[in-house]
Amino acid sequence: MRGGGRLRIVVAEDEPTVREAIELALSLDGYEVAGAADGMAALALLEEAPADALVLDVLMPVLDGLEVCRRLRAKGTDVPILIVTAQDAVAQRVEGLDAGADDYLVKPFALDELLARVRALVRRSRPAAGSVLRYADLELDLERYTARRGHRELVLTRTEFSLLELFLGHPEQVLTRDVITDRIWQYEIGAGSNVLEVYVSYLRGKLEEGGEARLIQTVRGVGYVLRA
């Protein structure tokens, strides 16, 4: 929410009928919406005024969605990004996450699901203030939005931060796959999806980058647990 008004969502989609349907659904859900027909126009809208979330098509003229993601993240812009794409191969989804997207949605999709995912992204971007979570040598400051392991600062995406917050809020408690996906993504992830595994792998890589021992342990067939 910028300046006390409605939450602002930028929608970048080159197909007019799809863009207009998304804009209308978001407007009816109470958001202020700005639309763009290509990636460069989307970046211009974000320069004009900050957004609370970005709904971003991948295949667009002038500048594609993945390059928009990369440019925003390279500048340090942390706007939550939901990619919408007709490409449903795992490798293509991972490419979107690697580019800096927080979530993806495969076309064709139900507008209700898109709205649910946008709401989830906005909620995750607003952590509760005034609290510091600690376990072993991990520290997560929810007010300053910082993370440390020992003396080393961790640079986390929004989703990685939320995932670590969940583990730190339930140390040494086994969290099932369903519980984690429901708390982090707020919608059902299919049994064949590996988005949770992808993010656990990313988070482990950052937590163990300095050669530290593994803290996020796999409980085979169940889920994960934060355990020293």
Short description:
The chain is an alpha/beta fold and 228 residues long. It contains eight helices and twelve strands.
Question: What would you say this structure looks like, in words?
Answer:
The chain folds into 2 domains: 8-124, Response regulator (Rossmann fold, 3-Layer(aba) Sandwich); 132-226, Orthogonal Bundle (Arc Repressor Mutant, subunit A), CATH 1.10.10.10. The chain is 40% helix and 21% strand. It has helices at 16-28, 39-48, 65-74, 90-99, 111-124, 158-169, 177-185, 195-207; strands at 8-12, 32-36, 53-57, 81-85, 103-106, 132-135, 138-141, 146-149, 152-154, 175-176, 216-219, 223-226. It has a 5-stranded parallel sheet with strand order 2-1-3-4-5, with helices on both faces. Mean pLDDT is 88; it is low at 1-5.
Please describe the topology of this protein.
Blueprint: E1 8-12, H1 16-28, E2 32-36, H2 39-48, E3 53-57, H3 65-74, E4 81-85, H4 90-99, E5 103-106, H5 111-124, E6 132-135, E7 138-141, E8 146-149, E9 152-154, H6 158-169, E10 175-176, H7 177-185, H8 195-207, E11 216-219, E12 223-226
Parallel strand pairs: 1-2, 1-3, 3-4, 4-5
Antiparallel strand pairs: 6-7, 7-8, 8-9, 10-12, 11-12
What structural keywords apply?
single chain; 228 residues; alpha/beta; Rossmann fold; Arc Repressor Mutant, subunit A; 2 domains; five-stranded parallel sheet; four-stranded antiparallel sheet; 8 helices; globular; disordered N terminus
The SS-based structural class is alpha/beta
Low-confidence stretches: 1-5
| Principal-axis shape | globular
- Rg, rounded, reads 18 Å
CATH topology of the largest domain: Rossmann fold
Indicate how many domains the architecture comprises.
Answer: 2
Strand content: 15-25%
Instruction: Tell me the number of strands.
Output: 12
The CATH superfamily of the largest domain is identified as Response regulator
CATH class of the largest domain: Alpha Beta
Looking at the overall shape, the CATH architecture of the largest domain is 3-Layer(aba) Sandwich
Tell me the helix content: 25-40%
- Largest beta-sheet characterization: 5 strands, parallel
> What is the helix tally?
8
Please state how the strands of the largest beta sheet are arranged side by side: 2-1-3-4-5
Order of helices and strands: EHEHEHEHEHEEEEHEHHEE
What is the CA-CA span between the terminal residues? 38 Å
Mean pLDDT: 88
